[in-house]
Specification:
- By secondary structure, the chain is an alpha+beta fold.
- It has 25 helices and 22 strands.
- Strands 1, 2, 4, 5, 6, 7, 8, 9, 10 and 11 form a ten-stranded mixed sheet that branches. Strands 14, 15, 16, 17, 18, 19 and 20 form a seven-stranded mixed sheet that branches.
- α1 crosses α12 and α14 runs antiparallel to α21.
- It is globular.
């Protein structure tokens, strides 16, 4: 308690130094805690279920190589074969994530949800907050009525938390579903970052989707499977059991795709899943490495803050050296001198941590908002748990040690004879100055590393946003129309798509309109294996395909460089044709024209497609099957791409596909107003349609959300590091001028001019900054290789980024030390000699 009182008295005696130290620590600790809270919520926090450590997902080596821990998908028949064998484990379930449209028709009100097998809640051990969860009895095909369980969030937002919600009928994609239960607020589902609003039994999927059911199609592999291990059942034993069951399932699937035949691998699912193959956003795959990188960046910021504070505390300790020597002369031990200084450091760190936690609470929420896109919401549990508490406490103690050790060591080394000198002026201060100079060099070096990182990440973002798209993203409104509830035969659905396009073309403000199954940078697109008879290339998987209506290229501003566009004459009964991009034409037909050439391997039964046009290269999607980055389409070279007439695509599109994107290039009018007009035109075509709208520009912007976040954070923390380095240099220079005041006064009395004094002060600072820049450049060259996969258009050791960073640090050093140097020129030699 005595040490605490002494420490508080010392901190109050220098309020400016203490305030600067607390603010620096608050920024450093707060930033670290905010990023770690986000990292913890995304990667480390277990599911709020019973014994989550016993949960596993069924995957394979190929899926794991792509970062997908839930496998590449099961179909309904595989799960039907698996269900009788669930007693070999302590339960299990299959699920399929989906966005549900509430209501019967009109503008879509969508909610995040999932189809699950009956034992979903039982396996997880999640009880109902209100009513009941559904059971295996609810998951029986042909049941009298469909039932559903809603989340606590939907209960509050849609039903105002009323208990009368039980038994209420909720219209899901035109089908009434009876609400039987509400889940607890802590349970948000098993998909990280994507909370569910509505859970329906798998058996309800054919009822809702009808003839377009994915569950009944042998070609749809959209299910993911999670199992609960029995107590004491090892992961290896469970994997062996699962592989034996796999052999039985494959006997009932003679034409199963290759990825289903790969040996199953069980993967721990303690922290939930993040699986694009199961229909979620793949948030964990996209942001895990960027967040780890940013966490390293903010750790360096905190280290810079600690070095800065250590310099401040050293300067304050130098002013108290006579007090220390007096206490030593009176019999105090070195440990008794060091203890109050260490306590001061601990109190500063605790005050900074308290302020930092408040900043972290705000900062983590702001970061989550940056992860979301116009089409994908992100909700993460950022509440304080034991991991965040231990992390913050550990960081607090570490900072106290980092900046408190140097002054404590200096205090222990104080000599009792200093008390006998007048104000301790016989002290040379050389050791103190040397230690302070080492800290300045380290601070400049660390700051340079962060400024280089900021330059690399900001440069990456700028280059990605400057990538030529090959299409005009401006003034395009995309209407996603779901026709699953329309009263129309499946064979006539392509005709309906064309009718929808025709209906909107005549609306005021519409310049051009066309339809397609997918849109650029939406993440969708078929992957096909094609061959070119007589061409230079052999069969290759990695050709991207989209299905479009006439006018699609004109709507997107993509030029037809040779041949013609898709036309109305390319009907279902006509000869199959295709428009290819320049990348495909060059690769498959390097000599001569691609027009009139054929592509095989696309249509079942050995049919060929005749090339009738060559379009300009445009970014659509990446040919890589990967879920780690949403910007692969921008990063990768434009792959060979097919544009197939939508009317000729029925046997090629994904089974059960009932949505079409109607793209409208508007000439005038606000998009929000236009969307209502277009919506009315769409609804006039047929009943049972639902639709949603978005701007193409927003979709393009969402594709670089990961890079935008990293660039924004690295630029902010690079600037903060630069500010801290400037403050540190200012403090050291000011202290150096104060310590050498007598020397400077004598030099001026002997005739030294202003320029000589400035040179005297800045020469040492220039050496320190130069040494720090050299050390920082070497450290940057070594560390940059660890972030090379996050860069685009820049080498990890980009000379321009390093040069600009070095110049920036040099300018910051000159500005920070310039003011104390000017003050040195105003020292009065007479006053110095009078008091020396």
């Amino acid at each position: 308690m005595s040490d605490i009182r002494l420490a508080l008295r010392a901190l109050r005696a220098t309020p400016i130094v203490s305030s600067v130290a607390i603010l620096s620590l608050a920024l450093g600790i707060g930033a670290n805690t905010a990023i770690f809270s986000l990292f913890n919520a995304l990667m480390l926090r277990p599911l709020p279920v019973v014994e989550p450590q016993r949960l596993v997902t069924v995957s394979s080596d190929s899926a794991l190589a792509l970062g997908v821990k839930t496998g590449l998908g099961w179909n309904g028949a595989m799960w039907t074969a698996m269900e009788p064998n669930l007693p070999l484990f302590d339960g299990g379930f299959a699920w399929m994530s989906r966005r549900f449209t509430l209501g019967r028709s009109g503008e879509a009100h969508t909610v995040d949800g999932m189809y699950t097998s009956g034992d979903f809640f039982k396996t997880l051990g999640v009880p109902a907050l209100l009513g009941r969860t559904f059971t295996a009895a609810d998951d029986v095909r042909g049941a009298a009525a469909a039932v559903g369980v809603i989340s606590y969030g939907l209960w509050q937002s849609q039903f105002s938390g009323a208990a009368s919600v039980l038994g209420t009928s909720l219209v899901v994609e035109g089908v009434p579903v009876t609400i039987v239960g509400v889940t607890p607020p802590a349970f948000a589902g098993i998909e990280v970052g994507t909370p569910f609003d509505l859970a329906l039994p798998l058996a309800a999927e054919p009822r809702i989707r009808g003839a377009n059911s994915s569950l009944l199609s042998p070609r749809s592999f959209l299910l993911a499977v999670m199992l609960r291990l029995k107590p004491g059942q090892s992961l290896g034993a469970a994997t062996a059991t699962m592989r034996a069951l796999q052999l039985e399932m494959l006997r009932s699937l003679p034409q199963a795709p290759k990825f289903v035949s790969e040996p199953f691998t069980l993967v721990p699912a303690t922290v939930g899943v993040s699986s694009p193959s199961a229909g979620s956003s793949g948030l964990r795959q996209r942001f895990a490495r960027p967040l780890a990188t940013v966490l390293a960046v903010v750790a360096l910021v905190l280290l810079i803050a600690c070095v800065n504070i250590a310099n401040l505390v050293l300067a304050r300790a130098a002013a108290r050296r006579q007090e220390m020597s007096v206490r030593l002369a009176l019999g105090a031990s070195p440990w008794h001198l060091a203890r109050p200084l260490l306590m001061e450091s601990l109190l500063l760190a605790i005050a900074g941590a308290i302020a930092g936690l408040a900043l972290a609470a705000w900062g983590s929420r702001a970061l989550v908002a940056q992860l979301a896109t116009p089409t994908t919401r992100v909700v993460l549990d950022l509440s304080l748990d034991w991991r965040v508490a231990i992390f913050t406490a550990g960081v607090t103690m570490l900072t106290a040690v980092l900046f408190g050790t140097a002054p404590a060591i200096r205090a222990i080394g104080t000599a009792p004879r200093e008390a006998l000198s007048a104000d301790g002026r016989t002290m040379s201060g050389s050791s103190l100055g040397a230690l302070s100079h080492v800290l300045v060099v380290a601070q400049v070096a660390l700051s340079l590393v962060l400024v280089v990182a900021a330059g690399l990440f900001v440069g990456t973002f700028e280059r990605l946003t400057a990538v030529p798209l090959g299409f005009d993203k401006n003034n395009v409104l995309v209407m996603n129309v779901d026709t699953s509830r329309a009263s129309i035969d499946a064979a006539r659905r392509p005709d309906l798509y064309q009718q929808l396009v025709d209906a909107v073309r005549g609306e005021p403000g519409v310049a051009r309109a066309a339809g397609s199954i997918w849109t650029p940078l939406s993440g969708g697109g078929a992957m096909m294996t094609v061959t070119a008879p007589g061409g230079a290339a052999a069969a290759e998987r990695g050709v991207v395909a989209n299905f479009v209506t006439p006018g699609w290229f004109d709507t997107y501003g993509i030029p037809i460089v040779e041949g013609r566009d898709v036309e109305p004459r390319d009907a279902a009964a006509a000869s199959p044709v295709v428009v290819v991009n320049e990348a495909l034409a060059r690769k498959y037909f390097p000599v001569g024209s691609a027009l009139g050439q054929t592509l095989a391997g696309v249509r079942p039964g050995g049919g060929v497609l005749t090339i009738v046009g060559v379009a300009g290269n445009a970014v659509f999607r990446s040919a890589r099957v990967s879920f780690t980055s949403a910007s692969l389409a921008l990063r990768d070279p434009i792959p060979p791409t097919l544009y197939i007439p939508l009317t000729q695509s029925e046997i090629l599109r994904p089974p059960g596909s009932t949505t079409v994107n109607v793209s409208i290039r508007f000439a005038a009018g606000a998009p929000a107003t236009l969307s209502r007009t277009i919506g009315a035109a769409l609804m006039s075509v047929t009943d049972g349609l639902t639709y949603s709208s978005r701007l193409l520009e927003e979709q393009v912007r969402a594709s670089v959300a990961q890079e935008r976040l990293v660039a924004w954070l690295s630029a902010f923390f690079g600037g903060l590091a630069l500010l801290l380095a400037g403050l540190g240099l200012y403090g050291v220079t000011a202290y150096s001028v104060a310590r050498r005041r007598t020397e400077i006064g004598i030099r001026m009395a002997l005739g030294a001019d202003t320029s000589s004094v400035v040179t005297l002060v800045l020469s040492r600072v220039a050496w320190l900054v130069s040494a720090g820049i050299v050390a920082g450049l070497l450290a940057s060259a070594w560390l940059s290789r660890f972030v090379s996969s996050l860069l685009f258009g820049l080498a990890p050791r980009d000379p321009m980024a390093m040069t600009i960073a070095a110049i920036t640090l040099a300018i910051a050093g000159a500005l920070a030390s310039g003011l104390p140097a000017l003050r040195a020129t105003r020292i009065d030699p007479a006053d110095v000699l009078r008091h020396s």
